[in-house]
Design brief:
By secondary structure, the chain is of the alpha/beta class. Helices cover about 50% and strands about 15% of the residues. The strands form 2 sheets. The chain has a 5-stranded parallel sheet with strand order 2-3-1-4-8, with helices on both faces. A 3-stranded antiparallel sheet has the order 6-5-7. Strand 5 and strand 6 form a beta hairpin. It is globular, with a radius of gyration of 17 Å. Bound molecules: adenosine monophosphate. Adenosine monophosphate binds next to helix 2 and helix 3.
Length: about 220
């Protein structure tokens, strides 16, 4: 079972993917997370990707396809939630080939829709634990002690690309990318649109409902 989550920045891909992974025991593959890991570790790939990520631009296809390939093949026997991949038609085509190598294919594409205002409000208030990756929001989900992770005591930081100017850039880039991918998957009858506004739980129930209706995950 392979499910793709599409959303604008702040649309809740990562949050919903984590909940779905727990609920259905699937693997969660996030290219954004993998790239940020490479950046933090200062690997050659991370250094190459950093100028794109920090400007809110797409990292070149060959880098992204290279980093997800191994993880996708390793997740062969389990269901997979793809968060942030594919983002271009070249990536979508590469995904088809990678899946076909192991007799798999894309089963469902969920498109979470939100307004630009919601995007800025959600992302500018987001804080992430530098140690364990747990996410908080200054208004909607603050930690018990300001700046400290409830889960591991690590320090909370703001992602470099979560500042207003870069968020606007990411939104512009994502509009082009999503409309192309929506066409690509709608032609195959795989696309489902879901209202991404509302609480995390409300959106999660909408997603589970659509998954139950269209797949074996009922
Ligand atoms: P995300 O965590 O999905 O919002 O991704 C954060 C940033 O990582 C994006 O703004 C891009 O710079 C980069 N990125 C993540 N996934 C991809 C991808 N599939 N293709 C190109 N760039 C990506």
């Amino acid at each position: 079972m392979t499910v793709i989550l599409l959303a604008p920045p702040g649309g809740g891909k990562g949050t919903q993917a984590k909940l779905l992974t727990k609920h259905y025991q699937m693997d969660h593959l996030s290219t954004g997370h993998m790239l940020r890991g490479a950046l933090q570790q200062g690997t050659p790939l991370g250094r190459e990707a950093s100028k794109f990520v920090t400007a809110g631009l797409l990292v070149p296809d060959e880098i992204v396809i290279g980093i997800i390939k191994e993880r996708l093949l390793a997740a062969e026997t389990k269901g997979v939630i793809l968060d942030g991949f594919p983002r271009t038609v070249a990536q979508a085509e590469a995904l088809d080939h990678l899946l076909a190598d192991t007799q798999r294919s894309v089963d469902l594409v969920i498109n979470l829709e939100i307004s630009p205002e919601t995007s800025i409000q959600r992302l500018s208030g987001r804080r992430v634990c530098g140690q364990c990756g747990m996410e908080y929001h200054l208004l909607f989900y603050p930690p018990s002690v300001a700046g400290v992770c409830d889960q591991c005591g690590g320090g909370l930081v703001q992602r470099n690309d979560d500042v207003e100017e870069i968020i606007k850039n990411r939104w512009r880039v994502s509009e082009d990318e999503r409309s192309t991918l929506q066409d690509f998957y709608a032609k195959r009858g795989l696309l489902r649109k879901i209202d991404g506004d509302g609480t995390i739980d409300q959106v999660f129930h909408r997603v589970v409902e659509v998954l139950g209706r269209t797949t074996q995950y009922g």
